[in-house]
UniProtKB/TrEMBL annotation:
It comes from Drosophila melanogaster (Fruit fly). Belongs to the gamma-glutamylcyclotransferase family. ChaC subfamily. Pfam families: ChaC. One of its GO terms (molecular function) is glutathione specific gamma-glutamylcyclotransferase activity. GO terms for cellular component: cytoplasm. It catalyses: glutathione = L-cysteinylglycine + 5-oxo-L-proline. This is glutathione-specific gamma-glutamylcyclotransferase. The gene is Dmel\CG2540.
């Protein structure tokens, strides 16, 4: 980087051309490279390589030697990331749904798909019509000998505003089986991170589009949930989820390249205000490293959106 800056300075390039030259040489590929961590370019399949249906019915447990089922086991119902990201042991799993709820991206995420100063959006359930509204997801059977540790783990994982409740789960496809009593986690409207519907779908989608946290980009959460619903429950309709996916994809196609370029040029211009060439090179290398880390794209997008809102 330092050699490039030295050569650039000696070439006689105008000061206003330097940010663009540096951007083209080192940073343009941030936009052009395939977007990992749920951030692929719009002409790629967002769900490529992500297939649950292929193994769902043949791999009931994620343990090599699962404990035997007993009457003291519990079932956990997942309708968000638990559908496609199980980080706890289970001995059985079933596809199905619960009656009387609507799934909505009305909960802020400050510990998984966002950070406190840039919260993401994740799902919770709202009361709906008991005879019409259903939410699809996956129920996991937890062995009695493991349920204490699993529930402690889930209590921590869902600590940002989610509470346990119990209800009936119905298997899919409906085959006349008796309902299963399950535990699920719901973020109530009274919790501090409840965001609600104060913003309509385009605004929620823009928040998802520009957020990332310790668990990865917020868009990955959205796209993986949509992919899981498509694969596990073909034909099931979730208008809220489908509208958000379409809106975020549109932002990726229409807005993302320009926003990232704008943010990078702004960052590069600020670095070039440093007097020492060596310090400029050091800060540019740090900027490049940050851009290439998970969440780097979202950081740039958020910065560009904030600047746009202030102008």
């Amino acid at each position: 980087m330092l050699d490039f800056l030295t050569e650039l300075r000696s070439s006689g390039s105008r000061a206003d051309q330097l940010p663009g030259n540096i951007y083209t040489e080192f940073f343009a590929n941030v936009i052009e490279e395939p977007r990992e961590h749920g951030c692929k370019s719009a002409d790629q399949d967002f769900t490529q390589g992500f297939s649950m249906l292929r193994t769902f019915d043949t791999e009931n447990s994620n343990q090599l030697e699962p404990p035997a089922a007993t009457d003291a086991d519990v079932w956990i119902f997942g309708y968000g990331s638990l559908v496609w990201k199980t980080d706890f042991p289970y001995i059985d799993r079933r596809r199905g749904f619960v009656w009387g709820f609507k799934r909505r991206f009305y909960q802020h995420s400050i510990d998984h798909r966002g950070i406190p100063e840039r919260p993401g959006r994740v799902v919770t359930l709202l009361p709906g019509d008991p005879a019409q509204d259903r939410v699809y997801g996956v129920a996991y059977r937890i062995a009695a000998s493991q349920k204490g540790a699993v529930l402690d783990h889930l209590d921590y994982r869902e600590k940002n505003g989610y509470e346990r409740c119990s209800l009936e789960f119905h298997e899919y496809p409906t085959d006349g089986a008796e309902p299963i009593q399950v535990i699920m986690y719901v973020a109530t409207q009274a919790n501090d991170s409840y965001a609600g519907d104060v913003w309509q779908v385009p605004c929620i989608a823009r928040q998802i589009f520009s957020s990332a946290g310790p668990s990865g980009p917020n868009r990955e959460y959205l796209f993986n949930l949509a992919a899981a619903m498509d694969q596990l429950f073909p034909g099931a309709v979730d208008e809220h989820l489908e509208e958000l996916v379409a809106c975020v994809k549109r932002y990726i196609v229409e807005d993302e390249p320009q926003l990232i370029r704008h943010a990078l040029l702004h960052e590069i211009s600020g670095i070039l205000e440093e007097e020492q060439l060596a310090e400029q090179a050091h800060q540019l290398e740090k900027l490049l490293e940050r851009c290439q880390k998970p969440g780097g794209r979202e950081w740039l997008i958020y910065a560009a959106l904030q600047a746009k809102n202030k102008s």
